[in-house]
Amino acid sequence: MGVGWLVAGGVAVVAAVIAGVAVGPATLPPGAVALELLDRLPLVEVTSGLTERQGDIVWELRLPRVVLALLVGALLAVAGGAYQGVFRNPLADPYLLGVAAGAGLGATVAVLLRRSIPEQTPVELPIFAFAGAIGAVILTYALGAAGHRYRSAATLILAGVAVANFLTAVQTYLMQRNTDTLQQVYSWVLGQLAVSGWHEVKLLLPYAVLTCVIVLT
């Protein structure tokens, strides 16, 4: 990748951050948002002109969601690149091995348990989703190896499609039996960030860095 593409990507990220923070129910001037962000940098002293309330909107509400969205998007890109490299297929996606379906089922189970165990913390849901994704991969590999001495990519893909359909059916059944959980599950599946803050960013950041280091080395 050339330097030009890296510079263009960096400019696009900065513009996206400013736009993401500026646009909302209370629209803020993009220039003032940029100055507000610059003012927090070391050795930089500028005046943004934003009120204290607007500053709270920037730092406590919108910026953590934008940063979290950037981290999630970066991890999705890394995961997609890893999938395509492993399967040598530019169309490979997380649904191939049932990972997405397993994570969705795990999240659904976590939401259902949260109704009976109210004292759960927000950490339980991603743990259940991760466990569901790992379980789906193990099941896919087990099916792909059944009756075969060597695993081929085509066999694994077919097994993954079967596992994904099965787990999706189980998730749909649970959601239909518990319709009050539909909104929470769909919000998680679609990647809602409305209630996210710096706490979620701190939870994700170490795993994001570790994942990128492992995949890119």
Share in helix? over 70%
Order of helices and strands: HHHHHHHH
CATH C-level category of the largest domain: Mainly Alpha
Could you give the distance between the termini? 16 Å
Number of helices: 8
Stated plainly, the CATH topology of the largest domain is called ABC transporter involved in vitamin B12 uptake, BtuC
* Strand portion: under 5%
Instruction: Provide mean pLDDT, rounded.
Output: 86
Count of beta strands:
0
Low-confidence runs: none
Main β-sheet: number of strands, strand sense, barrel status? none
CATH architectural designation of the largest domain: Orthogonal Bundle
Rg from Cα = 21 Å
What class would the helix/strand composition place it in?
Answer: mainly alpha
Overall description:
- The protein has helices spanning 3-22, 30-39, 52-87, 99-116, 124-145, 153-177, 182-189, 198-216.
- The protein has 217 residues and is mainly alpha-helical.
- The protein folds into two domains: 1-50, no CATH class; 68-216, Orthogonal Bundle (ABC transporter involved in vitamin B12 uptake, BtuC).
- α1 crosses α2 (30-39), α3 runs parallel beside α8 and α4 (99-116) crosses α5.
- It is globular and about 70 Å long.
- The two termini are 16 Å apart.
- The model has no long low-confidence stretch (mean pLDDT 86).
What order do the helices and strands come in, and which of them pair?
Elements: H1 3-22, H2 30-39, H3 52-87, H4 99-116, H5 124-145, H6 153-177, H7 182-189, H8 198-216
Helix pairs in contact: 1-2, 1-3, 3-8, 4-5, 4-6, 4-7, 5-6
